[in-house]
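Student: Hello, beginner here. Can you help me understand the protein record under this note? Any guidance would be welcome.
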Amino acid sequence: MNIPRHRKVIDNLDARIVQLLNQRTRHVLEIGRIKRKAGKEIYAPHREQAVLDHVARSNRGPMTDEHLRAIYREVMSSALALEKTMTIAYPGPESGVSHHAATWRFGSSLRYASKKTVQGVFAAVAQGRADYGVVPMDGRTGLVPRVLELFANADLKIVSQIVMPAEKRTQSQTGRSWRAGPARFAVLGRHCGPPTGQDRTSLLVGVVKKAGPPSKALDAFRRHNVNVRRIESYSSKRRGPFFLIDCDGHANDKNLAAAIRYMAKQYPFIRTIGSYPKAD
């Protein structure tokens, strides 16, 4: 087949792709109408993850799974923009690392609002001036204590996470890059999604002497067969020593719910700050 014939086939395929994309979008818009009537959130991280996983399983090449995921993120972004005028808040300047993480997750079709601080992002989401927020969970030196402090005091949840490989991150406008390795960002929302069977939950736990060291908390998870992925400590000016626990499962799962109840008897403060689809 010569070049003109290849191009003719490509033109025909493009016409079919456009037709199918519009057909897909009509179904998405109808689902959005049903959701709004029922008072449900338009953005569904668990469904987004299921779509991306299905696309990857259906792929036979030569395009890579990563390329197809990037394309479908834009497809879903344009559909979200048609369903609702959605605003995503993030801290720092446009083209900074948080803005890059937000657009990498939500695509280019939504509105983005830069805030000076992570506190500004929390406030924008809590007050309804933004639908969702994107904030860093890891910085150049590890956890971002200010973000955890805000989670301890705000009625907001991690509804999904963004895990960006080092090669996907751009340098900030100051020219300084984040530490090597993946960087994690939390997507803030008002409500956690339903269990998917492939979830992760983040907990904040306060520490006092009589409750023992953070390692004692692991007993609760061992008792109920819950796998802990991460446990890190930090200090809060307002509440004293804390630790962050990431574990497998959804807060509504029977075993994890039992482990949380057990820990609530041992520690003065425990808060589930999010249950969300795994993003590893």
The two ends are 42 Å apart (CA to CA). DSSP finds eight helices and eleven strands in the chain. The mean pLDDT is 85.
